[in-house]
Amino acid sequence: MQLDIDIEEWPDRDWADLAERVAEAAGQVAPELANERLVASILFTSDSEVHTLNREWRARDKPTNVLSFPMLPRKRLLALAPDGPPEMLGDIALAHETCAREAAEKGVPLEAHAAHLICHGLLHLAGHDHELSEQDAENMEALEVKALALMGLADPYGDRT
C-alpha cells in the first residue's frame, strides 16, 4: 500500500515512518491491505479540523480521535488484482489533541496510541467494522492487537490470554 501523508498541528516526530510501519503490519494481519495498488491518505491534524470533518461528513458535532473515509467497497477490495493502476482505498484523519489526551490517560506514548489509531483506521478502510456486532468488534480488535504486536507494541485493549 502506498500512503499519502500530510502532517499539520502534530509535534515534530517521524509520523510518516510510523504510518508506513503500521501499514506494513496491518497488511500482514489483513492481507487485503498489502496490495501494492492501494493508496490511502493519512492526515495528522488538529481536533478542530477533525471536528469539522466529523460534523460535515458524519453529522456528529464533536471531535474524535480518528476518522476513516473508505472509498473502495470491501467486495471490490478483496477482488482487486495485484496488477493495474492505483486504487484509492480511502482517507484517515487523526486529531492531535484528542490522541495526546487519550495517550496520557492510558499512560502510553503518543506514538503507540497513534499507531493503534492508524491501524484501526486502515482496518475500517478495508471494510472491518466494530459497530456491527460484538463478534465483529472482537475480530477487529484481534487484528489490531496482532498488527501492533508485530511492531513490538502492547495490546491497547489490555492484557489478553
From TrEMBL:
Transmembrane segments: none
UniProt GO molecular function: metalloendopeptidase activity; RNA endonuclease activity; zinc ion binding
Gene3D superfamilies registered for this protein in UniProt: Metalloproteases ('zincins'), catalytic domain
GO cellular component: cytoplasm
Broad enzyme group: hydrolase
Cited Pfam families: YbeY
Stated name of the protein: Endoribonuclease YbeY
Source organism of this protein record: Alteraurantiacibacter buctensis
